Amino acid sequence: MLNVVAIMGRLVADPELRTTTSGINMARFRIACDRNFARQGEQRQADFFDVVAWRGQADFVCKYFQKGSLIVIDGSIQTRQYQDKNGNNRTAVEIVANNINFAGPKNSSGSNGGGASYGSQPRQNAQPAARPSNIEAVPSYSAGDTDDFAVIDDSDDLPF
User: Fold this and answer.
1) In CATH, what number is assigned to the domain containing residue 57?
2) Which domain holds residue 20?
3) How many angstroms separate the CA atoms of 77 and 51, rounded?
4) Structurally, how many domains does the chain consist of?
5) Strand partners, 47
6) What is the CA angle 6-11-17, rounded to 5?
7) What is the pLDDT of residue 159?
């Protein structure tokens, strides 16, 4: 069977870190994912997905992500049954994260809390990095000529 999910969205609230009785870290959070289509004159709709991360992924998401962060998750969908406070049987559908990655800055200004941000423009006054003297220059192929390439005779069998 195949059960694979890849999703990108924004955190609706800060992730919540918990530790099981056996000492394993677990984080729960919800992400909002915009739908691809919006009817004319209507606002774009979003879907909300509950995500569960375990162990190192739980620590990672709680340390580096907060409400509004753009996040990419790949994992699988799982369901579980439980009873609510009133004794009613309920079913929860969750994405269990295998990998969690950054997807971009928190806001459109390009800041990401002081660190480097995804897709940001380089500073105008930035100096190019000095190349160590023991590394040779890589040749540029953009200055090549079409005569530099040989024509392959493909009338016979393939050479490999």
Assistant:
1) 2.40.50.140
2) 5-36+44-102
3) 9
4) 1
5) 33
6) 100
7) 58
**Sign of CA pseudo-dihedral 44, 8, 109, 113:** positive
Helices (H) and strands (E) in the chain, counts: 1, 6
Answer yes or no: is 145 within a domain.
Answer: no
Percent of the chain beyond pLDDT 70?
Answer: 65
Best CA proximity match to 28, nearest among 83, 82, 70, 65: 65
Identity of the residue numbered 76: S
Mean pLDDT of 48-56: 96
| Region 137-148 average pLDDT | 57
Instruction: Count the neighbouring beta carbons within 10 Å of the beta carbon of residue 159.
Output: 7
In a domain? residue 75: yes
Asked, for residue 113, whether it belongs to a domain, the answer is no
Asked if residue 126 is part of any domain, the answer here is no
The CA-based dihedral angle spanning residues 36, 27, 68, 96, taken in that order and rounded to the nearest 10 degrees: -10
For residue 147, pLDDT beyond 80: no
Strands 5-11 and 25-34: antiparallel
Report whether pLDDT(120) > 60: no
What pLDDT, in 10s, does the model give residues 70-97?
999 999 999 999 999 999 999 999 999 9
Residue 24 CA, distance from chain mean position: 24
Please tell me the distance from the alpha carbon of residue 114 to that of residue 110, in angstroms, as a whole number: 10
